[in-house]
Queue: 4 jobs
Job 1
Amino acid sequence: MIKIVVDAMGGDNAPAEIVKGAVQALGSDKDLKVVLTGDKEKIGQTLSGLSYDKARLEVVHCAEVITNDDAPTLAIRQKKDSSLVVALKMLKEDEETQGFVSAGSTGAVLTGALLRVGRIRGISRPAVCPALPTAKGGKVLLIDAGANAECKPVNLCHFALMGTAYAKAMGVKEPRVGLVTNGTEDHKGDPLHQEAHNLLKTLPGIHFVGNVEGRDIMSGDIDVAVCDGFSGNIALKTTEGTALAVMQIIKENIMGSFWAKVGYALFMKKAFKNIKRVMDYSKYGGAVLLGIDKVVVKSHGSSKADSICASVLQAKAAVDSGLVPSIKEMLSETDLEAIGAEG
Amino acid sequence: MIKIVVDAMGGDNAPAEIVKGAVQALGSDKDLKVVLTGDKEKIGQTLSGLSYDKARLEVVHCAEVITNDDAPTLAIRQKKDSSLVVALKMLKEDEETQGFVSAGSTGAVLTGALLRVGRIRGISRPAVCPALPTAKGGKVLLIDAGANAECKPVNLCHFALMGTAYAKAMGVKEPRVGLVTNGTEDHKGDPLHQEAHNLLKTLPGIHFVGNVEGRDIMSGDIDVAVCDGFSGNIALKTTEGTALAVMQIIKENIMGSFWAKVGYALFMKKAFKNIKRVMDYSKYGGAVLLGIDKVVVKSHGSSKADSICASVLQAKAAVDSGLVPSIKEMLSETDLEAIGAEG
């Protein structure tokens, strides 16, 4: 039995959709326990309309909520009775609680995880790691997607190691790691990426395929796309924006032609629903915060029940696969000092 | 009558597709003259099968070609009889020749334009500026898309000014300029983008709407997306990769369902052809090199005749609209020192 704590008050659709999503996850996995932190009364209102295994759901009341308007560090320090801080305290202190899900402010979740749970020893900068769909039907991990606007070469080595551990935990045998730069040649990029390239080439434990470009991220030819947090965030959000723009352009082209409209109405509605689901990856499931000493999944702010359910199951799968211990093992086996990455 | 010189030997499909594209452009604009530089015999072979106004097409023979394998600076210095260097010499020296198009190596075109034509006075770093389609049916200029992997804040101010001048030349009345960072809040980004944000806020002559994210680039809510060349290149190529991945995912969803396949075959083929054309923007038309003292258009390496034709007409339109003089005027009216951007 694995216990996942869920911040019931984080996100645009909290608490109703968060509660529904958590209950949905309970229904699809009998080895799962869920703790909801938040306003007991509001949570109870949603719960009263649902049927679920009461032995596997616990509600812990908290009076405060951290919002997007709060300054993360201050809020984590001061709002001690917030759904986020109470959940993180439980994650840190309760051995049975091994994973955490929140759709709240990214800054607050990241700061909270750092201050209240702590980093894996040896990782100076935890990173945000979402999984994107690829043209070949698989997934690619993007790390760092925005936790660190400024990075050092050693941080990018840690991202490569953690991304590899996560991809392996997801079942990829020998994850192919690419460094996202402005060209495929070895010398491309600014000094940060040039130095990172040289380190990654000699870094044991990863399968480095070299520099890749933005167009390679979703090609299906790599499993882990290593980025600094600044350009990684731009790349991630550019995939979202482009996917939306493409869907819009397609829609307009279809709706602009009578016969295409007929074809759509008669035959293609279901296919497009599927497509939308795949392309809506930013809202489906969450990004794992790698480098934190427990499993932390950040769900999209606009998450609805389906998404929260996916994030809870994703957190449980990460615990099941031993993600945190594998990262620790990879780090203990890799002498970053020996390749000149530290100091 | 405006004369555009075209590097007939640059690109994967040179010279046949380049020659065909140039001839196509001549056919659609009676005020256009084209000079082709390259192997006279090979160019002649393609020309012999085409009909065109011979008075408006000139071929200048050159014995050498600069390829993707050449080191740009060395090649520009040594291959003096290459189609690229001869074309740039004409662009620099011949007053009647006001624009240039090449589908050759980006590095060589950029270096060549810098060394052989020169910068606009006051612009320290010319930038690559492609136009992308938006979700609202318009265009957005991305600047810099890859000329400068390392930038200073003043460079980003120049990009904003040049992008504004270009958008105005394309008919946008008051172009909205966004700075692409890892979040919309004013303080987001690394020190480069934080400082650039503060400068852009006070920069006269532009309509700065603040920080934008990768997802806003193609939203249609901005006309000019200012980026450093490193993250701008990643953003540009990520849009290409995502568009391809989305088209692939759509295709598989359609082909995986019998009825969707029927609908596609009966009704939607044409709509999808249109969509492919819009989304194939990277191969259609070219990116303007802004900051060079004449109009330089870099067409995609895999350009075919249609694309080259579009690039030639794009170069002519830029000349017609007075793009280079407008940039000079904007610079002369903007005291970058006064806002603390220089030095």
Job 2
Amino acid sequence: MIIALDAMGGDNAPQATVEGAVLAAKSSNHKILLVGPEKLISGELLKYHKKYDVTSLDIEIINATEVIGMDEHPAKAVRQKKDSSLSVSAKLVADGKADACVSMGNSGAAMAAALFYLKRIDGVLRPAISTGFPTVNGSCIIADMGANADCKAEHLFQFAIMANIFCKKVIGIEKPKIGLVSIGEESTKGNELTLGAFKLMEKGKFNFIGNVEGRDIPKGKADVVICDGFVGNIILKFGEGLAEMMLKLIKKGFKDHPIAWASLPFLWFALSDLRKKVDYSEFGGAPLLGVDGVCLIGHGRSEAKAVKNAVFSAARAAEHDITNEIKEAIAKYGNISG
Amino acid sequence: MIIALDAMGGDNAPQATVEGAVLAAKSSNHKILLVGPEKLISGELLKYHKKYDVTSLDIEIINATEVIGMDEHPAKAVRQKKDSSLSVSAKLVADGKADACVSMGNSGAAMAAALFYLKRIDGVLRPAISTGFPTVNGSCIIADMGANADCKAEHLFQFAIMANIFCKKVIGIEKPKIGLVSIGEESTKGNELTLGAFKLMEKGKFNFIGNVEGRDIPKGKADVVICDGFVGNIILKFGEGLAEMMLKLIKKGFKDHPIAWASLPFLWFALSDLRKKVDYSEFGGAPLLGVDGVCLIGHGRSEAKAVKNAVFSAARAAEHDITNEIKEAIAKYGNISG
């Protein structure tokens, strides 16, 4: 697969993106198009020459002179900066020169660029951003995680169709359990939005397991968790904040009770699973579902390993042709509001 | 203060409620009305006689023959079971025979009983349930935590007025920082509901600090966190589930890495702050804000200590006359939708 990587996206770009590209190219047959200011990127790439023999790797630099910052207004930035690394990455997919694009940058701008260059899939009412979240027994994906603050029932229904396909094809779960985030297990519990979505999802051509409550998400009750982007964004960020709080309090506990210091080296072993679990670099990026081409967003704080995993996710999504799978599914049984 | 305690409410009733009443009466000047089947409760009370000299304590049993279960339909149960421990507790407040009532039972039924016997405060559009949540540097209160799944901007505005008073008077923070749960710090970020609520809250007669994101809640950015009951309920339950998941993974880590066992006794010290922090028994119950009388709901799994703390919270709320404070505030500047 040919993957266009926005070399300038994310807090640690271009170091992390370029190293991530090197790692990805080294351990796969994918060709990586590194998109960004040519001189800057080639200089960065040279740093890894000794260690990885960069010239032997299938990496090509595609020049793009502009950069979209993390705080820029998404739609405006994409409209104005046609030669930004993000826009050029999306264009490469639109022009058939890449099979997928990946960015660790401004996620709103990535969605705007995808909509501008790749367009929406016919019949998709609202594209969604879907992302991985750790659970006791593995992980689940949440859709939408923030692209759509206000949703209607039929939007949630389509999120379920699209995330089901991603989970099946890219994550490899044969019959993903699809849950609807609500405030009670019974079909009669919820708000207007989820009560309406429940009725649609009951009839969906996927494995709908009904409502899932807040506490069911980390328990791993569902493989795919459906909610509007407002709720999804709050769940994700709240989860991050809570995990940080717990680690801070554990640290404070050690500081306040010097007797506990003796346990530190041993504790390291005990916490290894937990650390791995909450490490977002394992999740491999968040796909934009419903745009006509494969586009993945990674965490803004991504280091090289997370970039590599995002490239691999994008390649898997392209290999399994999820764009066409979604097209067919939406055309067949997803177009309910006309 | 005279506090009516629903002796039959909660998973551990009547053991935990009766012992909680004993503990509360022993360490305060409050009179506790233990509401439930007379024989059962007096038998339970006798168990503590040796240890606490129960006859010297200011506890009175008020007979109530029926019990509302945790899974009963709230409004229906309250309508039908007029002699339930919960209904009689609320009636005692309505009749001026108690200053406040407390229940660890079915929270929906507690709200229904409060609305039925105490009524809504004039001008209050929707009463809310407010509850405590741990933060890095203390705790915050969240309103609404589940009473109102669908809200309008003016409901959230009134939640802020009421929770501000509770936080000031009962928790003792002079100028509580009030935050609106949203998906971005800027006033332009959010969904239709929060965009509208932001405009109202900007002009509120309280210390509005603007939007708070999911991760800001455990960071303790706000003392009072305002959201609709759908979002509040998901935050709370998700937080519970996530904390459980993290503890499970730590336990699994110890199981998988026997070398870490050596750290267990020391770890106990280090985790003491964290354990105390996530211990809901410290929070002392969730007030129903906007009903015409003080009514608190405790966690269904409450043990005696949590019951005692809920009784103390209710007494503080009654002492500070928060019902009249809320009445005045709503009449003065809370009645915006007529």
Job 3
Amino acid sequence: METEFVKIVREHDLIRPGQKLLVAVSGGPDSVALLALFRRQAQLLGISLAAAHLDHGIRRESAEDARFVKDLCAELGIELICGEADVPALAQARKEGLEAAGRQARMDFLVQSAEAHGCDKIALGHHRGDQVETVLHRLLRGSGVSGLAAMAWQRDRFIRPLLGFARERLLDFLVEQRLPYRLDASNCDPAFTRNRIRHQLLPLLRSFNPRIEEHLADFSQRVALEEDYWRQQESQALAAARRPCDSGLRLDRQVLLSLQPALRIRVLRRALELARGDLLALGADHLEAVEALLFKPRPQADLHLPRAWVGRRYESVWFRPSAPEEPEPFDFSIPGPGSYALPDGRRLEFLLTAAGREAPDALEFSLEDVAFPLQVRSFRPGDRFRPDGDGGEK
Amino acid sequence: METEFVKIVREHDLIRPGQKLLVAVSGGPDSVALLALFRRQAQLLGISLAAAHLDHGIRRESAEDARFVKDLCAELGIELICGEADVPALAQARKEGLEAAGRQARMDFLVQSAEAHGCDKIALGHHRGDQVETVLHRLLRGSGVSGLAAMAWQRDRFIRPLLGFARERLLDFLVEQRLPYRLDASNCDPAFTRNRIRHQLLPLLRSFNPRIEEHLADFSQRVALEEDYWRQQESQALAAARRPCDSGLRLDRQVLLSLQPALRIRVLRRALELARGDLLALGADHLEAVEALLFKPRPQADLHLPRAWVGRRYESVWFRPSAPEEPEPFDFSIPGPGSYALPDGRRLEFLLTAAGREAPDALEFSLEDVAFPLQVRSFRPGDRFRPDGDGGEK
């Protein structure tokens, strides 16, 4: 197993000789195995090590976990960075669940610790079982293809060297090395979906196919590889559809309509991701609603989604975090050329020019046809104009 | 439900007014519901109907099934085409399983019946439950992404108008319409994987998410849409990599190496599909072996796969159903210009020419440097030549 571990670290270029690694240690079997593997192979890999543990204050056992990790690191002779966080308070402040708040606090703590102690990489203990449970969890919740992509071996400063190992192999290694570990009490409570997946669903799936975990892990690796390709295709198509605009994103409707449907849906999702910053709480239904906006005969329509606004304006589709504010209406008369303040802070510059510029979005009047004072006001429902003098009006 | 049924038939353009439809009827609930729905909506849809039933001779009940379908069609006033097949004998002759042989016999019978009775389309009774069970079955067996693509609403002459309906809705419709049906005895035997999926796995999945079947059906629809895009991309990349050759397929190694890895694996699979005619019995391991051939430093290597041969020859990769035959060795002397038979049936034309043609694959000799008789023989291991006179040899 140790040979395989070193091979994986090298093949995926997870850390290089001369670098310093921070190992995240909760005290559970996965992170203890991770720490021990790196401890035994640090010399061969030419790296130096430190460990980090966050006391999250969620369960009563958290102080005991911290004590356990301290003893373990002392015994292994590894520098330990300890931190504390009041996750329940954070969760309340951010209106998040305990799990999400705990994950965020842990990540923040790890990144700060790595900075403070000059660590180049941070190792996480996720193994194949976590990968498989995540895939099943997402599938059960109704995820699309993208959601089934495997966790990355490496992302930013984080590495996951155990992704290729089954939980059972890590446990065997711990027994072999006579290493102690702490069991998370919540792991044994089948009320949590994650634990029901582990203790009810996976055993049933294994009765269909004893190699199911290997298959599902391979499956998610293949999906991750295909997602890389999709991201390329999405970027290309998005660049082709994008039009200049002040804020948010403006896409050309005709370019979107010309895309293959699967790519189009992905480009719309990507546009929403860019406008909002993430995809949380967006589902397939929302994307279908955006797509419907493109195909509707109505040339102007608005769509209000969670933390996003999508507006169709003829051949443009706008994506913004929120609907643009209605401009404050105005109505005043001007005696002649000059500079006039509008109620929203903008200014209207009115000047006379010799060189006219008639264009689809500009209209030229001869000074003889204009009589001051002029009345200047914002659009009102019911206003009409004749674009071309051809008898039609809008 | 009937309104929804008509809407689906029209939206997916499954059959048009004036056409004749053949409905495949086994006697089970799905096909009875399918027949009854079309019977009730035939006038609205402007189509005419016939039914077809194959007595497959697998179980003792098959004669009773045939009798049941005859009575049902007589009562509904629908023309019935009956056929018989000895599926166990066919399976033995073709060395296939009963299920595969039965499916093939049924498809052949339906296509022939449609031809003989002037039917434009053939309706099959697959519903959402079948779709979901297929996805789970494939996932359990270790399928890749492509294997999870939904059945098509329409393919060739076959249509599947019930794909959007859950089994329960079809059963409710049958009760409402007081329609009888036959239950396949094999459906209740949990020894078959398919039935274990239905009676053990799906109930557990529903306890995680009551809408799991809807989710999985949507998931497979999205995969099918994305597969369409992949097929386009594969075709483009394959066309770019393809080089002329006599038989099988020859691809340019450099073009293959330049592809994004997920696309490359798919192009290799497509090449194998074209060389063999199908992808049966090919797995991810085989594809990885073909890919390894591209990256190996050895410029010449052969790979023998089930019903396929892949050969790397420097910058070319060949795909064939079987390895090319080794040419019969020859060794003879020729007294001068003329035409000489080779043992494999080809001929060697030897002539003198005034206009020389020196090229990377052709060598020019002056007649003064050549002394007859010349010895002509095929390649032997150990033969060496100096390509450029620059001191190097091969």
Job 4
Amino acid sequence: MSRLVCEKIKVEIMRYNLLKAIKMNTITVAISGGADSVVLLHALLQLREEHGFGVDACHINHNLRGAESDADEAFVRDLCKQFGIKLTVHSIDVKALQQKHQGIEEAARNARYSVFVKQAVTATAHTMSDNTETVLLNLIRGTGLKGLCGIPPVRTCGGDGNGIIIRPLLYCERSEIEEYCYEHGLSFVTDSSNLSLDFTRNKIRRTLLPLIKEINPSFDATVTRTCEILKEDSDFLEQSVTEIARKCSFDNGIKVESLIKYQKPLLTRIIMQFLSHNNISPSNRMVSQILELIEIGKGKINLQKHKFALIDDGILEIQTIFQNYRN
Amino acid sequence: MSRLVCEKIKVEIMRYNLLKAIKMNTITVAISGGADSVVLLHALLQLREEHGFGVDACHINHNLRGAESDADEAFVRDLCKQFGIKLTVHSIDVKALQQKHQGIEEAARNARYSVFVKQAVTATAHTMSDNTETVLLNLIRGTGLKGLCGIPPVRTCGGDGNGIIIRPLLYCERSEIEEYCYEHGLSFVTDSSNLSLDFTRNKIRRTLLPLIKEINPSFDATVTRTCEILKEDSDFLEQSVTEIARKCSFDNGIKVESLIKYQKPLLTRIIMQFLSHNNISPSNRMVSQILELIEIGKGKINLQKHKFALIDDGILEIQTIFQNYRN
């Protein structure tokens, strides 16, 4: 069984051409001290020689659970010493970073990503179960195709292509993780923050999923398969748009006339890519508003602090308030 | 509120260009006697003059609940008499029709569809709640993009485009149905078959959905919106394939060479349309097997009783065993 985890990681490394992304770099394992991340670190250490990558680790102490947080940090320090690998610890005051209208979970995630973006390649220990929870969470809150594709196996967290994040355990089930720990005599901590940070995710994990698994005991594997099928569709649509985007060049805005010929699935994605190109993280609300703007043919709408979308003389542009004042 | 139901039906009639599909025909309302179908019948009667369609009704007695089934039939007969519309009753022995490896729910559905296919236009009373249940059911059992689009607002149940089924209540919530009944003093029966035929659907309705609605009380509306977004993507992909299919013409099989250039999302859908064109209801398993066949470039696989897919001399064809014996 423990070989299976390594095999699955290898298959994923090949499937997503991760080594090309890694470019023979060092993979930094984000380690909480929980079973998933301990297994990930151990398995990548087994594979590093064969694949020619280096391994080190980072631990983020969110300082949300007092002495328990510090005990986890001490555990991770010991483990990395024992494995003989370099560890960087980032101590973060999440509560101080938390902004208005932001949950503690969101603030913690942002804090983690601000660490990851500075690293070449970070490996996180998300498993099949995390993917299932994410898909259900998105479905319950409302989503589109991308949200139903689940956790991406590879992504960048910087707009400039920096900070690659890989998830080599995304095809591993909880039982495989447990078996791996048992076979290799690995110890780990039980991360109690997992059980309290995100109320909705906990409710899904603890009450919804057990019920669903009474209907389909292989639900995690079923969702993984569904995500794969949807991801093929989603990637295909995204690629079609990337080709269109390359032709239009987003730097001087987009001619509204050139947009009208596209059907909604492409048009929506062109706008999303256009917003991302302008360093705006696109929401469904923004996209609907811009679609309305295109239909009217002129006007402007606020997108977020200091930034708005404007159609002027047949060109859709993103401007900052500063630019507007200057005009 | 009751006006809202009529308004929603009108919007749906316009949105999906149903009147064109109906071609000024008579709409036959499939009526069980439950609140949803009673509201549908009453609302369509209010709208018939304005839209210039006729309305009649059909009732299918599944004979699964003895005296209760007969009481429902009697209720529906009375109601239609009172509304002054023509009613056809189809009495079906579902248990006798049930085939090996077939659930009672599947046999009942097939029996209903064999009635609908003989009618020009059937209106069924599926609501937003039915759509939510269908999406969850598909997600739990495993699905692709189409399965997550939910219940189609318009479909045909015959391969030759006959037997149009429309679902004018797909955007109505349970509370609106109840309000409508109350305002118009409509009585209805409580269809106890709804609570027993499909074990999994019941479990979703009675235990899963109440939990999900603790997280998102507007979950039905959220799913409806997600289905709309997904349907745009799905329709776009299907249309792209229909254009390709028109060019290849499926009648003499498909040149494997011409298929290889397409990416998997299109290729999968071309194969699905090819199977449907050959009167085979496509399953994911069939499609994967044919994809493997295409990769190998030759061979044959059984699809279903008497029918198989074959690649011979670079052509993918569907043959019946009879044809094979003859060769």
